[in-house]
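User: Sequence in, structure out. Go.
Assistant: Echoing your sequence, followed by the C-alpha cells.
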Amino acid sequence: MSPDMLVDDPLPRLVASIDDMYNHAVAAYALSAAWELGLFDRLRPQRATVDLEAFAREEDLDLRSVQRIAHALALTRVLTLDEGSRVAAAGPLFGDAIAKKGFFYWLTRGCGELFATMPQMVRNSICTGEFVTRDFRAIGVAARDAGLSFVDEPFCELVERRGLRSGADLGCGSGQRLIELAERNPGFRGVGIDIAEGAVSLARQAVAEAALADRLTIMRGDGKRLQRRPEFLDIEFVSCFMMGHDLWPRAECIASLEAIGEAFPAATDLIMCDTYRSDLAPTERHPVFTLAFETAHAVMGQALPSLAEWADVFDATGWTMTTTIEFELPPYTALMHLTRSV
C-alpha cells in the first residue's frame, strides 16, 4: 500500500500534486514580472502576438529570462507559445490574469520579503517593534490597479451623488482616488495622507503628472494618530481604503475613529472600504487574495475584524452606517458609507 493510501484526506484537491503547487508559485512571480516588464501591454490588443526575441531586444531584456517567464505563464494557461517558444499569445486565462494582476503584484512584489522571511517573522523573539518589511510603493501600485478595476467607480459615484467637494484620503497610497475626483470635478480639493514614504512619493509624482498640485496636497502622517490641522478644517468627507484594519484592535479603532472626527470637524461623511475577515474553513475554496491577505496580517500581528465587528465599532463612535456595498473583487471587501451631523 502506498503512503498516500494511509492518509485520510478530507480536503478538496485544489492542486493535482505538490509539483503543481511548486510550479504555480513560480508562475505567480512570472505574472508580476510580465506585467511590470510590459509584456501584458503588448498582448492586450485582440488577437495580438508578441515575438519574444524582438520584445526582449526592444526593452533591453535578457531573452532567455523572458522566454522562461513566458514558459511559466504558458504552463498555467495565461499565455500560449509556439513550438519554439518564440511567439507568445494570450491564453485561456489571460483575461482573468489582467483583471487580477494587482493582487499578484501585492503578493510577490509588495509582500515578497514578508512571505520569504515568514520562518523568522513568526518567532516571538523577533516580533517586536517594527519587524515587518514591505515594499509600500509596490503595494500602492498594486492597490491602484485593483482599485481602478473594482472599487473606485462606486466610490466616485457616491461622492458625486452626495455633492461633496473636498475630501481627505487616509492611507492614500498612489493618490489615484483623489486624482480621479479632481479630474471629474474642477472644483474638488483634497488632502492625501499616508504613513509610508514610498507611497507618499508615488502619490506626489502622480499628482504632479496630472497637473493637480494646486488642488491636491499629499502629506506624510499616521491615520491612527491624526490631529487637527488648518488644511483639515473645511474638509467635507474622509475616506479610508484598505487600511481600516490597521486601526484595530477594537479599543484602538474606536479611539482612532473619534480622533478622525475631531481632526476633521466639518466632515459629514466617512467612507471606508476594507477587506474583512472571511472566517473560511481550510476545507473551503479560497478566492484570489483572501489566503494571502489573512496570512500576511497574521504574520504582521494585525487583527482583522469581521463585517459585524466593524458595524459594532461604528455604533460606538457616533457615525451612522447608511450604505454597505460588497464587492466580488477584492473578495470579502465592503465599502461602508457613514454619516454624522456636524
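User: And one key feature?
Assistant: The chain is about 45% helix and 15% strand.
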